[in-house]
Amino acid sequence: MPRAGARRGCGNSGVKAPADARVPLNLKDGIVNQFCTASFVVVAISLFCGELVAESNDLSQYFHQDGPLAGTLKSDTPLPLYDADPDHLWNRMFAAFYIRPRFLPATEDLPEMVRYEGGDVIEFLAWGKTEYWSSEAVLRNVGLLLDEFLEDDHAQLIVEPLQRVVMQHDLWAPYDHLIDLNNRRIGDLPTRARRSTLCAKLAKCMQLLAVSRDEINQLPDTYTVAVKSGVFVPQHHSDAARNYLPHGLLSDTHEWTEIDFYYPNMHEDIMDRFISLHARSFHGRSHYRIFYRFPQGREQVVAYLAELQEQGIDWKYSAQFGFTRLLPDAPQIPLGTEVLLLQQMIAMDDQLRPVPTNIVESVQFRAYLNVDGSREPATNTGVGMNVLDYRLRRRLLFDGLKAGGLAREPEDEPQYRVAIGGSKPVAPDWGYEGKTVLFQQCADCHLGRRLERLGVASIPSIIHSGGFDAGAQMGVARALNPDQIGARGRRVARYKSRHESYRRLLDYLGK
Question: For 462, phi and psi rounded to 5 degrees?
């Protein structure tokens, strides 16, 4: 793992924790009202002295392996992600934002307990109504860490562009969350002032981490690295147990067809409307590419989209209500249809411009073995659709790009999701459903809880069914030509540059 300029060894690294770094937590109505914890304080630092230092690709010792807390972190101790030393400043900063406690009240079977959630994840655990990240104690303690980062050129502790871009991206999420609350005037004046102070520090940290456009362009294409790693098989054979990634996704345009929203050729500048719900949920910090594969290849995809345009749309309803709706007897997708959603990172270069990168944050794959929601043939969802989900792991990415930095999400282990519904202003502190298993999340979103959306109706990208507020178009998706590749990323980067959160960031930097 690259550690240019990093401090090594165990012991005190100069963390400036207040004397009251840990005080009791009070739980009321499921919400932590007071929380004063320095997530960056290393618990039992002696565990990491001497020979006991965690390998970068094995973090199992940090997690509960069984019991009611299985799958959660044992404490808020920083993980050895950006550097092999957990006490490294960058690791402490990451832990402060990506490890969060959750209090669980006592039940008939279990006592009251604290779960430490997060870790090496891509989603910042901040739902719509959370008060945690706005609490005075958390803002104060995290602010101390950012002060340390801003002192003595600590932004140069690690000089590798890949790690700098990822850390910048990791800080962007809490910035966007806090500034969005202020933009919507959530909270009283003192709370908004504390958020603004922290946002100013986050903005400066992100600026110090920025690398040049050339360095961003030279970052690895981590999807290509992943398929060349030998970790992922090139064919799934309708077996969800296989760790499959399509090897020709980015190279075989006959086999895999990248699609984009339909948008009219209008003289008005309306391009910011054609941004996916996923990208909007991340405030434009990530861009998404959507790929279809039909059994007979690209020609079949193009012909099907044309047929759907002619025979499958309720145009009267669409014109009246502002978003496209399928007819009940719309042409159906063929059996064997595959859909892949590729999430890639947006960075900010040293000229303070959002730039799309080739760093993959997630890969979500669906294969349709039937289109009627029946249990046959067998699938991991039980409703005719196999689902695979891969997520970025820094422990792999920074350790020689192992597996392209991607690891498969377990199907049977409950997990949180913040994107889409969970990021809405009305979402409870820990999301609408808390933790649910992966395939249940995918099936509920795409098929509906009563399987009311099957086959083509379960692929919202075909007609961008989110409505005009989500950039809807009056038409069916179109296949991208080779010279149009990258259009979605550039559009999201432009969307981000015009977003209120980004304008406020430039204000903080005096630009």
Answer: -65, -40
Region at 214 (left for phi over 0; alpha for psi -120 to 50; beta for the rest): alpha
Three-state SS for 225-293 is: HHHHCCCCECCCCCCCCCCECCCCCCCCCCCCEEEECCCCCCCCCCHHHCCCHHHHHCCCCEEEEEEEE
- CA nearest to 174, candidates 203, 149, 148, 151: 203
- The strands making up 257-260's β-sheet, listed across from edge to edge, are 406-408, 385-392, 354-368, 338-348, 286-293, 257-260, 478-479
pLDDT tens digits for range 224-278: 999 999 999 999 999 999 999 999 999 999 999 999 987 666 655 666 677 888 8
* Radius of gyration for the chain, computed over Cα atoms and rounded to the nearest angstrom: 23
String of b and e for 22-36 (b: at least 16 CB within 10 Å)? Answer: eeeeebeeeebeebb
Phi-psi region of 45 (alpha: psi -120 to 50; beta: other; left: phi over 0): alpha
Helices 487-498, 500-508: inter-axial angle, 10-degree rounding: 60
CB-CB neighbours of 503 under 10 Å: 12
DSSP 167-228: HHHHHHHHHHHHHHHHHTT-S-HHHHHHHHHHHHHHHHHHHHH---HHHHHTS--HHHHHHH
CB 455 within 8 A of CB 368: yes
Distance of alpha carbon 409 from alpha carbon 407, whole angstroms: 7
Note the pTM of the prediction, 2 decimals.
Answer: 0.86
pLDDT digits (tens, 9 = 90+) for 434-445: 888 877 777 777
Closest alpha carbon to 387 in 447, 345, 431: 447
- 174-179 long-range contacts (CB < 8 A, ≥24 apart) are 174/97, 174/124, 174/126, 174/133, 174/142, 174/202, 175/199, 175/202, 175/203, 175/206, 175/501, 175/505, 176/283, 176/285, 176/501, 177/124, 177/126, 177/133, 178/133, 178/134, 178/202, 179/501, 179/504, 179/505
Task: Please choose, from the candidates 358, 498, 362, the residue with its C-alpha nearest in 3D space to the C-alpha of residue 441.
Answer: 362
Smallest CA-to-CA distance from 273 within 498, 500, 425 is with 498
- Among 43-47, 126-130, 389-393, the range scoring the smallest mean pLDDT is 43-47
The token pair at 477 is: 């998706």
Residue 33 pLDDT greater than 60, yes or no: no
Average pLDDT in the 124-140 region?
94
Tokens 């110090």 — which residue? 208
Neighbours of 319 (CB within 10 A): 10
Distance CA 346, CA 495 (A): 11
484-508 pLDDT, tens digit per residue, is: 888 889 999 999 999 999 999 999 9
Q: Which amino acid makes up residue 312?
A: G
